[in-house]
Design brief:
This protein is α+β, with helices and mostly antiparallel strands. It has helices at about 5-15, 60-70, 75-90; strands spanning about 20-30, 35-40, 45-50.
């Protein structure tokens, strides 16, 4: 099971990154715990979503939830992957 973001948390994330191309991504928080990060196109790394807000026990669950959230924002898997990979190319993790 994956602890999901509340409607308020989703709205706060959208507000914080308004005007930017961004996508949810699955990230490893620590061994055996996975969560979400926010990647912004061409910015290095990602912004972690705190684990007390959103986390789960498998990478697969985190990835499926990130995909679902991106689809809800009308981002295709290819569009989300392009944003995430651009942040990987841009440099180090900001966490």
């Amino acid at each position: 099971m994956f602890q999901r973001l509340t409607t308020l948390a989703k709205a706060l994330v959208a507000e914080q990154f308004d005007g930017k191309a961004w996508a949810y991504a699955a990230v490893c928080i620590e061994a055996g715990t996975f969560g979400l990060g926010i990647c912004v196109r061409d910015e290095p790394g990602y912004y972690p979503v705190p684990s007390w807000i959103c986390c789960g026990a498998t990478l697969n669950a985190a990835q499926n939830y990130a995909d679902e959230l991106n689809r809800d924002r009308e981002f295709t898997l290819d569009q989300a992957a392009a944003v995430v990979s651009s942040s990987m190319r841009a440099g180090r993790i900001r966490a």
